[in-house]
Amino acid sequence: MHFPTGTKITITGDLGSGKSAVSRILCERTGFQYVSTGRIQRQLAEKMGIDTLEMNRLADVDPSIDEQIDGIFADLGKDSENYVVDSRMAWFFLPDSLKVYLRADVQVAAERILGDPTRNSEQYQSREEAVQKITARKASENARFLKKYGADCANMDNFDLVVDTTNHTPEEVGAIILDSLSRF
Questions:
Q1: Distance in angstroms (rounded) separating the CA atoms of residues 109 and 96
Q2: Whether domain 8-183 has CATH 3.30.70.2740
Q3: How many whole angstroms separate alpha carbon 13 and alpha carbon 115?
């Protein structure tokens, strides 16, 4: 497939919905570059000489950290490269992108997270604890983004495509997104 220069796909959604896996598949199938908030945060922390946990704590009291990260996403909109952007807020900062929201049943999402050995920062003792904390984190982030940016992450009308990944593989979700992108 060929896409115009400057094409952007922004992926956001529920915890455990498959955002990273789907983003990697999209990059493989399109040749687009991959950008993630996590990667940017790690690079910024390294530049500051601190770890990411310390940077997150600092960001609570120093708004310039979020401003630096947000500025990177805003600048991507001016870039002529094609990108898949895995980020909670990229849809907001890249309004001309194909804005995709991935949702998943919270029980299934909890099982995915519990079964993923690479998720060292998310350790839960049980599925019930995972469900409770996933639900609380989503509510907390939605409230913070609404207050800070006026961005309502819970309003699905903000997205061009909403895909329920509960019963789909990442490959199937990638195909759905590419089909939508071809018509975007």
A1: 29
A2: no
A3: 19
The amino acid occupying position 38 is G
Cβ neighbors of 76 (< 8 A, separation 6 or more) are 8, 35, 83, 85, 90, 93, 94
Q: How many helices (H) and strands (E) does the chain have?
A: 8, 5
Give the type of residue at 100: V
Around Cβ 104, how many Cβ atoms within 10 Å? Answer: 24
Full 3-state SS string of 74-106: HHHCCCCCCEEEECCCHHHHCCCCEEEEEECCH
Residue tagged 């959604």 (tokens): 13
> 139: burial class by Cβ within 10 Å (0-12, 13-18, 19+)?
exposed
Q: Which range, 8-12, 51-55, 112-116, is most confident?
A: 8-12
User: What is the Cα 161 distance to its own chain's centre?
Assistant: 14
In the structure encoding, which two tokens stand for residue 71, read together? Answer: 């500025």
175: amino acid identity, one letter: A
The pLDDT, as a whole number, for residue 119 is 64
Evaluate if residue 180 carries a pLDDT over 70: yes
Spell out the domain ranges in the chain. 8-183
Is 177 in contact with 8 (CB distance < 8 Å)?
no
